[in-house]
Structure formats: structure tokens, C-alpha cells
Amino acid sequence: MEDLHRDASGLPADTRGRLAELNDTKRRARCGPSGRATEVQHAKGKLTARERIALLLDEGSFSEVEPLRRHRASGFGLEANKPYTDGVVTGWGTVYGRTVVVYAHDFRIFGGALGEAHAQKIHKIMDMAISVGAPLVSLNDGAGARIQEGVTALAGYGGIFQRNSRASGVIPQISVMLGPCAGGAAYSPALTDFVFMVRETSQMFITGPDVVKAVTGEDTSHDGLGGADVHAELSGVAHFAYDDEQTCLEEVRYLLSLLPQNNRETPPAVPADDPADRRCEALLDLVPADPGRSYDMRKVIEELVDDGQYMEVHERWATNVIVALARLDGRVVGLVANQPQSLAGVLDIEASEKAARFVQLCDAFDIPLLTLLDVPGFLPGVDQEHGGIIRHGAKLLYAYCNATVPRIQLILRKAYGGAYIVMDSRSVGADLSYAWPTNEIAVMGAEGAANVIFRRELAAADDPEAMRIRMVKEYKSELMHPYYAAERGLVDDVIDPADTRAVLIRALAMLRTKDAALPHRKHGNPPQ
């Protein structure tokens, strides 16, 4: 900046001079610590905080809050190193024209580590998001608590966690992992609604590889311990994983387009080019009538939803159940579906947890639920029982029973035992239940039922196998025919599969004004 005439206090003597100084100060704040620091960030395959915000938000929409904030700590050389922003960029902008609040760690400054001033900036922007009812997106790339600031840094994380919890179910919260996130810092993303990760550059773990090796003797890498694929496939911590930041942030934008601003609004509706009364003839061949044959439930979903487009959540974790957001006639719905291609679509511990959390999310943000059933039951086994399948399965049951949004059940084929009840049956509160003529609703499969009911007769028969075949046929004809549940009012209608899309859209339109309330209480006590 050119030399300016200054007064006795050292400030420029006139307003124009002070404005020039302000502009120069803000320019330096935007540029960051140095060009070299930016080069190092890019060499790691990572964008800077401001570059990330520019990709996330609509062009030119970002308004920054506290760009000139500096820390006030001393000791360990901090008093001589007081960069603007203190390592986090905060503010708001728009995504497809709707307000979104954002904060982004700047790894170039203190490695993105959180200190007192850094935390206060995040607290302020989180409070703002809650008060105005706007989604909160965090772009995480930080080294955890700033060690030089001690306990004040830890207290800063406590304030973030408290606000994450207060905002839960009030505004959508999305965490985008674009670098390291270790120790207590990892709990903030875990408290949010969605976690995005980028392969090779983002990791999440409570204790790093060095500590793990020292304590347990296990030798692992940062990615092997807490990389994107680990959390997308094994732990279930990450809902989405992508190869690069640009794709990741574009998908965050798409997700935001499917979510409401807050729990007092409905998700945005868009004009639909896909006809509401479109017949889905392909469904007649996609799902085999033989309950023992597999098929891909994703293809069924593609036939039903607008333009075949949907956003699957947790695509690679607990793959025996599918949860996704899509549109029917331009309006957002949440889909929960068994996947016969994976473990025959049974419910197990992880599938129950995955589906339960998604049901709770949809209920919190007024997203109608569509449940597609083809489930042979809960997965049997010692590991499942000892792992707590009872309490984990109860999470899904609790989530459905507690949900007040419009709920529609569609039974494609098998619906056996407790899994049928848990997957939003009429008895637990589904508003409407439809079935295809291929449906089989029963306590268990016909083979197993015949073996139990007729075990004495089979043991005494001259030809047990011939008798078993006859008894299976009898059980099916008496208790498992396609109209058994409909005759008893447990299914509202048995429909032509090709008409499914039209039936669902009409039903959802009717249910749009549904008004349901839970008993007055502070909160429930869901199974853990």
C-alpha cells in the first residue's frame, strides 16, 4: 500500500486514506498467510477455504463475518503470530438462491487448529444459522485443538457440540471433511445430519495411527484408520465419499436442493417433467414372482421416481437396505427399501441403525416416507444376537412409530415376521399400505411354517417329503395368498405394479395436509 499522510495516532489522516488502508487489510486477510502456504495446500490436492466456499455457494453470494478477527493468546510465540480470520472463514451465502450458513477451516493458518477466537467465530455463525433457520455447512480441514491455548481450545469444542445438539432436527447440518479431523473434533461431524468425505485427503479418527500402534501394537496408516472408504464402507460414519473436492461440493449443493431450510418449512418443490400418471411397465419384469430369486431394488426406485434420479445415502454401508432422497411429481420423498441383492434384503444390526437414523431425519424435516418391502426377516446368528439385534432393531421400530410425516408402505414380495412389522406396517402407524399381487405376508416362509405346524405329522408320515410339499402348498393357499392381508384390512389395496407411481403420487397428494401430534413429553427415550 502506498505511503499515506498519517495523524499523531499513526492512522491515515482522512477518510479516503483510512478506506484505502481498510481495503488493503481485507485484501491481506483474504489472501491468507502467504503464497507459499497456498502452494503447499494445492500440492496436497486441497483447495483453500475461500476456494471451497466459492464452489459451494452461488457465485458472488458470500458475505463474510469477522474477517478481521485475531486471537488474543500469548505465550509459545503466539503474540508474534496473529493472522486475520484466526484460521476459520465464516459467513453466509446462497445455494440455488436459498440462504446457507457456512464456516471453513483454513489449514494454512495454524493448521486449521481451533483456538478461543476461532471457536467464538464458529459459535457466532452457528447461533446465527439456528436463529434465522438456515442450513449449516462446515468445511472441515483442521488439526484439532490449538495446543498452545490449552483448555480454552477444548472449551471451544464443547460450545460447538452443544450447538450441534441444539440445532439437531431444527436446521439441516452438513459436515464436509476436506482434510484431517482428529480427537474430540471428530464428534462435531458425528452430531450432524450428513458427513461427506474426499478420498486420500480427508481422515477422521479419535486416536491417530501413532497412538494406536503405541497402545495396541497395530500398524496402520491415516487412510487405513479413518479414510473416506473406511468410514463409507465399514464404520458408517460417512454418508458420502468422493474422489475430489469439486465433485463433493457439487453433491453437497444437490443435497441442499432436496432439504428444507428448517423444521418449520417443507422441502422445495419443483415443476416435474415426468408425468405423474406414467405407467411403469418395466416393473412387471424387474421383480421376479419367485421369492427366492434376487433383483436390484435400485432399478425399481429408478422406475418410480421422477426422471429416475435419486440421491442414495450410505450407499456402501449396510447395503442390505437402501435409504435415499428423491422426488415424486416434483416433491421430495424419503425412500427406505430392502435390497434383495445384498443378504437377500434381511434386516441386521447395521441396516436397522442406518434406516432408523434416516427415518428420524425425514420426520424431523417434514419429508414423507415411502417404504418398499421385500424382507425375509431379521438376520439370524449368534453374532447378531450377542451384538444386540433386539435393541438395534428396536431403533427402527421406534423411529417409525414416532414419525408423524406421511408414511406409505409398499409390499413388493416377501414380508415375513417381525421385519414386516418393523418396516412401517399399518399396525405401527403407516397411513397407507399397498401391495403388488406378488406379495407374501406371513409370520415366516411357507417351508419353515410347515415344518413347525406339521412337525408331528411329518415325523409320522410314510413319505415325509411328499407330505411336506403338500403342507407347504396348503399353508400358502390358506395364509399367504396375495389378498389375505387385504381381506383383513392390513393392506389398503393390491395394485398393478405398473400403476405404482401414479398410486403413490395420488396418495402423497392426499396426505400432504396430514396433521398428527405425539403425546406431550419432554422427549422420548429411544433404544440405544
UniProtKB/TrEMBL annotation:
On the tree of life, the source organism's domain of life is: Bacteria
Specify the CoA carboxyltransferase C-terminal domain's residue ranges.
275-523
Known InterPro entries for this protein?
AccD/PCCB, AcCoA_carboxyl_beta, ClpP/crotonase-like_dom_sf, COA_CT_C, COA_CT_N
GO cellular component assignments: acetyl-CoA carboxylase complex
Cite the Gene3D superfamilies for this sequence.
2-enoyl-CoA Hydratase, Chain A, domain 1
Q: What sequence ranges are listed for the domain CoA carboxyltransferase N-terminal?
A: 12-271
GO MF annotations, alphabetized: propionyl-CoA carboxylase activity
Q: Tell me the SUPFAM superfamilies matching this sequence.
A: ClpP/crotonase
What this protein is called in its record is Acyl-CoA carboxylase subunit beta
Q: Which organism is it from?
A: Peterkaempfera bronchialis
